Amino acid sequence: MTENTDAIIVEKVKKGDKEAYRHLVMRYQQKLFQTCIGFLQNETDAEDLTQEIFIKAYQKIESFRFQAAFSTWLYRISVNTCVNFLRKQKVKRLLFLDSGNQSKESFGVSEPADSATEREEQRRMLRTALKELTLMQRKVFILSQYRELSNKETAEILEITEKAVESLLFRARVKMQKVIKEKMNSNIAPTGRYQQHRAEPYG
Amino acid sequence: MNCVEFEIQLAKLKSGANPGVEFLEHKSQCPKCMELASRADELYHFIADDAKKTVSPFLSTRIMAELDKKALEVHISIQKAWQIAAVSLALIAGFNLALFMDYRQSPTDADSVLSEYFFAGNAGMEIENNWLKLSTDEE
Ligand SMILES: [Zn+2]
């Protein structure tokens, strides 16, 4: 049903009805935002990138030939844009243009101190774990965990087989557990659950 | 079930799925695996919470405004391109017209004398010499 209405709206947009595009934005902005959060681990950047993705998709809409669902096409653009963004960030850090300290980003509205520290610790661990993943494992993990897409949907977006998605997801989760185990072994401080670690840049 | 098998099973486990008796037994007997499972669960809950974050209600307005801005920029650049093209065409047309008119126009006496002066050896020199002579004589 959604695919059909998407197709109708896309046709309208292709014919120059820019206002029709608003419906697609409203329909997919939350989903793309979640995907971006997964990749970037930063709410502000995720929102900016969501905007960039929609603008890119609008500019490219003429090239959309209905060979896949519009949502699949949009997710492909999102994944590529996020990966490119992370690459650029990495280059920036290498060139010492950016400190890369993302620990104090705009995640979470004012939380109690303990809860905020715990979340920060979780965030740090998640970033470390994501860094351990290969690019393909990361893509699969984020689409599956942040978007809760099925293996079939993820396979379509990444243009790989469902079996490959299953395998990549398994390996990603094994790596996540490895990072958790490392933290368990090294971070038990005498005064608390975790020692405080310096935030590592993610990307 | 040993710890390695437990970890493999944990990595395969889908949220809400039944892990099986062996898994649960090992978990209750092995403190390390129990902690691992608990922390993995915490991490996946953290991700789920993260994914629940809602986008700003103004994002769609921002996107549409940005599209309008871009469309305007394109419109202006197209307009500018047309203006440049029109001016260039006018210049080329003007230049060609000038050449054409120049070609069509019959040469004046002055032009004839000038071209004769420049291209025909010492033609006209006689006039000049006579004039020079006259002016000398007058002195
Ligand atoms: Zn065990």
TrEMBL record, chain A:
The keyword Zinc-finger does not apply. One of its GO terms (biological process) is DNA-templated transcription initiation. Residues 24-90 form the RNA polymerase sigma-70 region domain. Residues 124-176 form the RNA polymerase sigma factor 70 region 4 type domain. Gene3D superfamilies: 1.10.1740.10, Winged helix-like DNA-binding domain superfamily/Winged helix DNA-binding domain. InterPro entries: RNA_pol_sigma-70-like (IPR039425), RNA_pol_sigma-70_dom (IPR014284), RNA_pol_sigma70_r2 (IPR007627), RNA_pol_sigma70_r4_t2 (IPR013249), RNA_pol_sigma_r2 (IPR013325), RNA_pol_sigma_r3/r4-like (IPR013324), WH-like_DNA-bd_sf (IPR036388). Pfam families: Sigma70_r2, Sigma70_r4_2. One of its GO terms (molecular function) is DNA binding. It comes from the Bacteria. NCBIfam families: sigma70-ECF. This is RNA polymerase sigma-70 factor, ECF subfamily. It comes from Alkalitalea saponilacus.
From TrEMBL, chain B:
The keyword Membrane applies. Keywords: Membrane, Transmembrane, Transmembrane helix. It comes from the Bacteria. The chain crosses the membrane at residues 81-100. This is Uncharacterized protein. It comes from Alkalitalea saponilacus.
